[in-house]
Amino acid sequence: MAADRQECPVAVVGAGVMGMGIAATVLGSGLPVVLLDIDRAALDRAERTIELQLRHARMMDALPPDRTPGRLVTTTSVRALAGARAVIEAVVEHQATKAEVLTEVAAVVDPSTPLISNTSGIPIDELADALPRPRQLIGTHFMNPAYLIDLVEVIRGPRTDEATVTGLTSLLTDLNRRAVVVRDSHGFVTSRLLHPMLNDAARLVGEAVATAEDVDALMVGCLGHRTGPLRTADLIGLDNLVDSLAALYERTGEQRYRPCEQLLAKVRDGDLGRKSGRGFYDYGEAL
């Protein structure tokens, strides 16, 4: 990597589950990170969690052995992103919120800086409508935990230019990540396949067909799913899953995307999964 790339930080917007995981991925690859959130308490929690994630990644041999972790800076000011090499937006899965954040960022960064929306299903071209330079926007879908999974779904919008694509692919190479580029659409590939399955798994529990443990055991033991759909849902965050499903349902009208009552009830009760300490499973302590 060139020295200027090492010195120029990658900005991550949003100190939630995905923002922290992406920040840990970048830091573990030896690049500096500026992490932005409006909530100072969330940033303080993120600093502690990211250190644990880096430790976990080292234990799993998921970090390049020849690189010193980058420096993390946290901020509540969007102006701190002005010199970023790239900006990865990882806020909640609401189109209006993402568009507002991306517009604010576009006003302070260089016109050549790639704006990368980490979305699980909102079409990139819809988000680009709000931007002064739609060519700057491209999508990624990092999987959780981002610091362990080396494949990234990349979504090129119809107005994304070659310089933005090159900027993102160069960054992913520096992160030791492989990219699969897909066409812009509702939910892309992974969410359109995965999220209805998670919805159905939750529905089976709600209908008392099987327990969460039994659903996951069958999917792991019989069908080769790595962790089971309901542990996966807890890892994603049940509120995030509901938001993503709702966005897909709104855009397609397909009933398989309509969040089931079991998921909605969990979210109403504050049982959001691993990050809250309880979802379909009890984790004891919130992240």
Concise synopsis of the structure shown:
The chain is α/β, with parallel strands linked by helices and 287 residues long.
Average pLDDT figure: 95
Helicity level: 40-55%
N-to-C series of helices and strands: HEHEHEEHEHEEHEHHHHH
CATH fold title of the largest domain: Rossmann fold
CATH homologous superfamily identity of the largest domain: NAD(P)-binding Rossmann-like Domain
What coarse outline follows from CA principal-axis ratios?
A: globular
> What's the CATH C level of the largest domain?
Alpha Beta
The low-pLDDT segments are none
- Examine the secondary-structure arrangement and name the CATH architecture of the largest domain: 3-Layer(aba) Sandwich
Structural class: alpha/beta
The tally of domains stands at: 2
InterPro entries: 3-OHacyl-CoA_DH, 3-OHacyl-CoA_DH_NAD-bd, 3HC_DH_C, 6-PGluconate_DH-like_C_sf, 6PGD_dom2, NAD(P)-bd_dom_sf
Site (Important for catalytic activity): 141
Domain 3-hydroxyacyl-CoA dehydrogenase NAD binding: 10-184
Pfam families: 3HCDH, 3HCDH_N
Structural notes for this entry:
The chain has 287 residues and is an alpha/beta fold. The protein has two domains: 3-183, NAD(P)-binding Rossmann-like Domain (Rossmann fold, 3-Layer(aba) Sandwich), CATH 3.40.50.720; 190-275, N-(1-d-carboxylethyl)-l-norvaline Dehydrogenase, domain 2 (Orthogonal Bundle), CATH 1.10.1040.10. Helix content is 44%, strand content 13%. It is built from eleven helices and eight strands. It has helices at 3-7, 17-28, 40-59, 95-106, 124-128, 162-174, 190-206, 212-221, 229-236, 238-252, 261-268; strands at residues 10-13, 33-36, 72-75, 86-89, 115-118, 137-141, 151-156, 178-183. Strands 3-2-1-4-5-6-7-8 form an eight-stranded mixed sheet, with helices on both faces. Helix 2 links the parallel strand 1 (10-13) and strand 2. The two termini are 33 Å apart. Belongs to the 3-hydroxyacyl-CoA dehydrogenase family. Keywords: Membrane, NAD, Oxidoreductase, Transmembrane, Transmembrane helix. The chain crosses the membrane at residues 12-36. This is Methoxymalonate biosynthesis protein.
